[in-house]
C-alpha cells in the first residue's frame, strides 16, 4: 500500500503522532484488499445477482464457529465486563450547586466544551453505522460483535452529556453558537462524508479513510484530549 | 395505508395473530410517509447535492435536546438497567454432565434446536444494521440509542449459543445439516433481503416489510416460541 495512499491534507500530520497505530492499520489493508477484489469479481449486473449478494451463504457460528481467541472477541469480553456503567445512575446535585458558584467566564468555558462534546458524541453514535455495516457484510462477525458494545457505549456518551447539561445548567444556552467553522468542517461534513461514503465504496482505502477520520482524528486526538480539559 | 399493503404470501396469517401490534405499526406508517416525501423532493441529482445529503445539518442534542420522555428513551433506560447480563458468566459444567446422560435422540433434538438458534441469532445481529441505519439517517436519535442496546443484546445471544454448544456438547456436530429448506428460505434469503433492501429503498412500505419480517415473524413468532422449546 505504501506510496498509494492519499489521505486528506493535514491528516498525515495527525497520523504521524500515532505511527504505531497507523502502521498496524496499514498492515491490515492488503488483507482486505485481496478480499475486496474477490467481491468485485462476483459483482455481475442483474437483479437476481444483486439479490444473491444480499443473501447469507454461510453462518460463522454454525460452520467454523466463533473465534473466541480473536482480538475483537477479547475486546468484547472486556466491554461486557467493564462497559456496563449507566449515565442515569450519576447524581449531579453537587455539580448543580457548584455550577451556581462559577463565574460567567467559567460557565461559558464549560458550556463551550459541552456543546462540542454533545454534538461530537451524537455524531459518532450516528456515523459509525456504515463502518459496522461494512464489517458485517464482510463476514467479520467477531468484529461486529465487539462494535455492538462500542456503539452502545457511544449512545451512553450521548446520553451522558445531555443529562449533564439538563441537570447542571440552570437554563439551556444556544449550544450551536459554539460550533465554529473548523468544528463544523469536521463534525458536520468530513466525518459523516468519510463514514457514509462506505455505503457506496467499501474499498480498503475508503475503510482506511473512514477509520483514520473516526478513530484517529475524532476519537484518538480530539476526544481524548478534550476529556482532559473537563 | 389500508388497502395499499402487499405483504408476502403467508405473512398475513402470522400478522393476524398479532393484530394489536400490526395495527400500531400501520398507524405509524403515515407519519414516516410524510417525512419520506419531503426527503424524496430534496433528492436532486449531482455529486455536490449527494454529498450535501451525507452532511449533518443539525444535531438533536445541541438544538432541541434529547426527548427523555419518549418511548424509545424509556426502553433505553430499561435496557441499561436490566440488559447487562454477560453470557460468559454462565457456568455450564452441570449442563455438560447432564448432556452426557441424554439419549441420542434427546441430544439430536437439542442440537437441532441449537443449530436453528445459533444461525438465527447471528442473522438478527447482522441484519438489523440497515434498519438502524435508516432510523439514524431520519434523525430519530432516541430510537437509534435504544436500538444500540438491542443490537448489543443480539450479539450476546449470538455469543450465548456458541458458548453453550462449545461448553456442553462433547464433539462439534454438523449444525448446518439441520438448516432445512424452509429455514433457509427465511434466514438465508427473506430476512437479509427484506433488511438489506432498506439501503436502496427506505420508504415506509419497505420499513414495514423489514419490521414485519424481523420483529413479527423472526423475533415475535419464531424466537419467542422457540425459546419455550428449550
Q: Can you characterise this structure?
A:
Two copies of one chain form a homodimer. By secondary structure, chain A is mostly helical. Chain A has a single domain (11-40, 93-229), classed as Ribonucleotide Reductase, subunit A. Helices cover 70% and strands 0% of the residues of chain A. Chain A has helices at 11-16, 19-41, 47-54, 71-82, 93-100, 104-127, 129-137, 141-168, 181-196, 204-229. In chain A, helix 2 packs antiparallel against helix 10 (204-229) and helix 9 (181-196) runs antiparallel to helix 10 (204-229). The radius of gyration of chain A is 21 Å and the shape is globular. Residues 1-16 and 29-45 of chain A have low confidence and may be disordered.
Summarize this entry quickly.
Two copies of one chain form a homodimer. Chain A has 230 residues and is mainly alpha-helical.
What key attributes describe this structure?
homodimer; mainly alpha; disordered N terminus; 10 helices; 70% helix; 230 residues; Ribonucleotide Reductase, subunit A
Amino acid at each position: 500500500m505504501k506510496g498509494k495512499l492519499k489521505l486528506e491534507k493535514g491528516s498525515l500530520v495527525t497520523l504521524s503522532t500515532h505511527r504505531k497505530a497507523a502502521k498496524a492499520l496499514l498492515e491490515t489493508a492488503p488483507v482486505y484488499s485481496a478480499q475486496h477484489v474477490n467481491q468485485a469479481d462476483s459483482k455481475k449486473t442483474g437483479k437476481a445477482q444483486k439479490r444473491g449478494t444480499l443473501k447469507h451463504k454461510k453462518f460463522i457460528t454454525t460452520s467454523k464457529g466463533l473465534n473466541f481467541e480473536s482480538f475483537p472477541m477479547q475486546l468484547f469480553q472486556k466491554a461486557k465486563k467493564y462497559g456496563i456503567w449507566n449515565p442515569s445512575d450519576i447524581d449531579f446535585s453537587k455539580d448543580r450547586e457548584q455550577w451556581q458558584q462559577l463565574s460567567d467566564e467559567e460557565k461559558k468555558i464549560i458550556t463551550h466544551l459541552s456543546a462540542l462534546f454533545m454534538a461530537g458524541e451524537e455524531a459518532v453514535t450516528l456515523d459509525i453505522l456504515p463502518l459496522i455495516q461494512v464489517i458485517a457484510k464482510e463476514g467479520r462477525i467477531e468484529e461486529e460483535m465487539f462494535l455492538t458494545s462500542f456503539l452502545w457505549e457511544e449512545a451512553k456518551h450521548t446520553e451522558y452529556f445531555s443529562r449533564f447539561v439538563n441537570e447542571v445548567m440552570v437554563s439551556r444556552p444556544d449550544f450551536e453558537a459554539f460550533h465554529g467553522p473548523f468544528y463544523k468542517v469536521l463534525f458536520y461534513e468530513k466525518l459523516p462524508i468519510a463514514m457514509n461514503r462506505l455505503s457506496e465504496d467499501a474499498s480498503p482505502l475508503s475503510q482506511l479513510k473512514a477509520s483514520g477520520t473516526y478513530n484517529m482524528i475524532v476519537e484518538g486526538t480530539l476526544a481524548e484530549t478534550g476529556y482532559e480539559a473537563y
